[in-house]
Design a protein that fits this description.
The complex is a heterodimer. By secondary structure, chain A is of the alpha+beta class. Chain A is built from 20 helices and 10 strands. In chain A, the strands form 2 sheets. Chain A has a 5-stranded mixed barrel. Chain A has a two-stranded antiparallel sheet with strand order 9-10. In chain A, β9 and β10 form a beta hairpin. The longest helix of chain A is centred in the middle third of the chain and has 37 residues. In chain B, strands 11-10-9-12-8-1-6-7-13 form a 9-stranded mixed sheet, sandwiched between helices. Chain B has a two-stranded antiparallel ribbon with strand order 2-5. Chain B is built from 6 helices and 13 strands. In chain B, a hairpin with a 2-residue loop joins β10 and β11. The mean pLDDT of chain B is about 95. Helix content of chain B is about 30%, strand content about 30%. Chain B is an alpha/beta fold. In chain B, α2 crosses α5 and α3 crosses α4. The chains are: A alpha+beta, B alpha/beta. At the A-B interface, α2 of A face α2 and α5 of B.
Chain lengths: ~575, ~250
């Protein structure tokens, strides 16, 4: 799949990506990652859910066992798989890192948030920091000796990050002092490492209001030895949240400068350039959240599949008089396949995006780089929004398959759902992704990148139509593409006179686009599987290829038809949504 | 001192295998393959001895199909310095493997040969013992503890009656049992390094060994399904059933 759909061969030719050209090496990396995930991270997943992190006035204690697991993870070099080689990282391509992360996140999502945030901070430092900051922080963040956090959100500033009030005062010696409160800071405090590096968005006094006046700062928990004697900085964790899931991840309220003098901080990048620096990593961060959806959907599917094979209940509609495992019942098969086919579709899009990011960054031909970047910019909000929302549905279906035991916490069936429930919310809610898709992607370039993508889908359609065995897939995909075009056209027209109508239709449009993107890739997978089977090239993978064909067919008949319904809603539903009487009573 | 470690590529322990419909063997066509778990323990032990300074070089060996080189790369990622693949598509039985290993022992002259006590696919538990006999070396099987010093190996063996500790002069053969150690997790940097380590491929003919099977498999069937037990009214009935139905006395 990496080869057929995610452009593996092209990515493998990039500098630093030689590993992907070696199937055996890539295989080894994935296998050894799975062993660590299975042996060290997975056993702590239920522990994290049950015992979680604990706050005390002396500091936050992570889930029992996390400290040792973190040590093994870091000793294995897994934290720095995708980090820059100049600071000790392995520098591997995003495509490989996405696959490895999926493995680790599926084993223990809460644990993975810690190295994930550190990775984001490393990228921010690489992009925006001066040499002195890089030389001091990067070696220790890359080695895993220290971890990092991202501090954006405040009680009155979530989706509207421009409304933040944390302030930064210049201290006159090149440093600043930070005063304010941040909420929802994952791993803001813990006992896994000796220091924690906080990246904090704040407004320098006198800077413009809103998002144009935000700067990014580095605030270490313990100050440097040189000049500061390693003193404790004035940043405290005032408490951690009780949440629905992700109990293994301490979600902290961080208070800066409460003692009065302010937390000591260093500017990262230029003043008022804070959000710009953040946006550079935004794409990668959003792909990774989408991959959380993929990972937890896969986990939930495997759990449900295992349960359905073992649980005996009810007689088969046709056949023996004895009760059968529930996997024999058509409705259970339907639920399992809806989970499987959607997970496969999401994964395909995620990997394709990861490969596209690598090509956009590293390909020698600027036209290829631009084309891939346009694809990435268009697809990221679609992927993040659609994959996370679909993951909630898929993980919830696992609970349903488990029956009453699904509702009992101890069975573990509900943990993927509870852990993934935050995914459509953080890193930009589905609503924000939809607005981004419409305003910055569809409208801004007059639909150019959207049409470029749809042209690719048309090419897939033409190839599929030429295969009589896949005629049904072609017709469903064709209907889906037509829906996307219709709504995109409606948006372009409605935007001029009825912009609120467009906003009301934004999320239905995003979901529609996601479903069709998934359908496009499942159809391409079916084409590839068909080709390999016909050529007698299946070898050891025959069952995989036949299952893929079945999955693609399921997707075409159970998921793609939803596109048409969403198109009707998008183009006709705004009036009812905006009816001023609707929410009065 | 060199240590020679033998590793076998077997069906992964998680896989539920089925018997082929013609009863000729087990169907492993699409099965996931891994290093035999007892052999992982063997490699781990050898690498630990090298880290302690007792050994200078660990050489991993595998006999079988071309894909065994994946197993050897894993051994090198754990810490083996180089590897030898004895490549053949012929069905290999313990005697053939023992003969191939003996040829390699003659060539490499290791101070210690470590193998897993048995492979989880055939459960033969023969190769180590046959190798020791062919090479005229002392052997200590089912090792749960191994100490090497002053040209001797002190081995604690897991036997039916409990634990037995013996001492033998090197060179010698040791086969590993489960409690000997817990294999490490392979690190990403070591996976990358293993790729560059030396892997030599030889054929059985090069070692002068005829590996054709001496045993012929007549039939393979699944074990009979366990049936429900019954309650008996008294001891006399129990004895009668044990004698006439179960036929165990």
């Amino acid at each position: 799949m990496l080869r057929e759909l995610a452009d593996l061969d092209r990515v493998a030719q990039l500098p630093n990506a030689e590993v992907l050209a070696d199937d055996e090496l890539t295989g080894s990396i994935l296998i050894e990652a799975s062993r660590l995930a299975e042996g060290v991270l997975e056993p702590l997943n239920a522990t994290g859910d049950r015992d979680g992190a604990r706050w005390s006035a002396e500091g936050v204690k992570a889930t029992p066992g996390f400290k040792d697991a973190y040590r093994q993870y870091v000793e294995g070099g897994w934290n720095r798989l995708a980090m820059p080689t100049e600071y000790g990282g392995q520098g591997m391509p995003t495509l490989l890192s996405a696959a490895v992360r999926e493995i680790f996140i599926g084993a223990n999502k809460a644990f993975c948030m810690c190295p994930g945030l550190t990775d984001a901070a490393v990228h921010a430092l690489m992009v925006g920091a001066d040499d002195a900051l890089k030389a001091y922080y990067l070696p220790r963040l890359v080695s895993g000796e220290w971890t990092a956090t991202m501090n954006l959100t405040e009680p009155q500033a979530g989706s509207d990050v421009g409304a933040l009030r944390t302030r930064a005062v210049p201290a006159g010696d090149g440093t600043y002092r930070i005063f304010g409160q941040k909420i929802f800071i994952s791993f803001g405090d813990h006992d896994l490492t000796d220091n924690i590096v906080h990246l904090v968005l704040a407004r320098v006094a006198g800077a413009p209001e809103g998002s144009k006046g935000i700067s990014l700062f580095v605030v270490p928990k313990f100050l440097p030895q040189e000049g500061w004697q390693g003193a404790r900085n004035d940043v405290q964790c005032a408490g951690i949240e009780h949440k629905v899931g992700n109990h293994g991840s301490p979600t902290c309220t961080m208070v800066y400068g409460d003692a009065g003098e302010g937390a000591v901080a260093w500017l990262l990048g230029g003043e008022n350039m804070g959000l710009q620096t953040m946006f550079v990593m935004m794409n990668q961060a959003r792909i990774l959240v989408g991959m959380e959806g993929v990972a937890l959907s896969e986990r939930a599917y495997r759990q449900a599949l295992a349960y359905a094979r073992e649980r005996v209940q009810g007689r088969a509609a046709e056949g023996s008089a004895l009760p059968v495992p529930i996997i024999r019942h058509p409705d259970v098969r339907r639920m399992l396949l809806s989970m499987r086919s959607q997970t496969e579709a999401m994964r395909a899009l995620g990997y394709m995006l990861a490969g596209a990011l690598d090509l956009a960054d590293g390909h020698s031909d600027p036209m290829v780089r631009q084309e891939r970047q346009d694809f990435v910019d268009l697809m990221i909000p679609i992927f993040k929004g659609w994959a996370t929302e679909t993951a909630v549905e898929v993980t919830r279906t696992s609970v349903q398959i488990h029956g009453g035991m699904g509702y009992v916490t101890e069975s573990g069936a509900s943990q993927p759902l509870r852990d993934v429930l935050i995914a459509p919310i953080y890193e930009g809610t589905t609503g924000i992704q939809a607005n981004d898709l419409i305003a910055r992607k569809v409208l801004r370039d007059g639909g150019a990148s959207l049409n470029c993508w749809l042209a690719q889908v048309d090419r897939t359609l033409a190839e599929t139509t030429a295969q009589p065995a896949l005629a049904d897939l072609a017709s469903r995909l064709g209907e889906g593409v037509a829906s996307v075009r219709m709504v995109a056209q409606w948006i372009a027209q409605a935007q001029r006179e009825r912009p609120l109508d467009v906003l009301a239709a934004a999320v239905p449009f995003l979901k529609l686009a996601g479903i069709v993107a998934g359908g496009w890739l499942m159809t391409r997978a079916a084409l590839a599987a068909s080709r390999l089977l016909d050529a007698g090239d299946a070898g050891e993978s025959e069952s995989f290829l036949r299952a893929k064909l079945a999955s693609a067919r399921f997707y075409a008949t159970h998921v793609l038809p939803q596109a048409g319904a969403l198109a009707v809603t998008a183009m006709n539903g705004s009036e009812a949504t905006l009816d001023e009487w609707a929410l009065q009573a | 001192m060199k240590i020679l470690v033998s590793v076998k590529r077997v069906v992964d322990h998680n896989v539920k295998v089925r018997v082929k419909s013609d009863g000729s063997g087990v169907d492993i066509a699409n099965a996931k393959m891994s290093m035999n778990p007892f052999d992982e323990i063997a490699v781990e032990e050898a690498v630990r001895l090298k880290e302690k300074g007792v050994a200078t070089e660990v050489i991993a060996v595998s006999c079988g199909v071309q894909q065994c080189q994946e197993t050897l790369r894993t051994a090198m990622a754990i810490g083996a310095d180089r590897a030898v693949l004895v490549q053949t598509d012929e069905e290999l039985q313990p005697l053939a493997v023992a003969r191939l290993l003996k040829a390699l022992v003659d060539k490499e002259q290791p101070g210690l040969v470590v193998l897993g006590k048995q492979a989880i696919d055939d459960d033969a538990n023969q190769t180590g013992q046959m190798l020791a006999a062919l090479a005229d070396l002392p052997q200590a099987t089912f090792a749960s503890k191994l100490e090497v010093a002053d040209g001797k190996a002190k081995v604690t063996r897991e036997v039916d009656g409990g634990l037995e500790t013996i001492s033998m002069p090197l060179p010698a053969v040791v086969t590993t049992d489960l409690r000997l150690n817990e294999p490490r997790y392979v690190t990403l940097p070591n996976i990358m390094k293993a790729k560059k380590k030396q892997l030599d491929t030889v054929k059985p003919e090069d070692l002068g060994v005829d590996v054709r099977p001496r045993l012929k498999t007549l039939k393979v069937t699944e074990p009979t399904k366990r049936s429900a037990g019954i309650k008996v009214p008294d001891v006399a009935t129990l004895l009668q059933k044990l004698k006439t139905e179960a036929k165990v006395i």
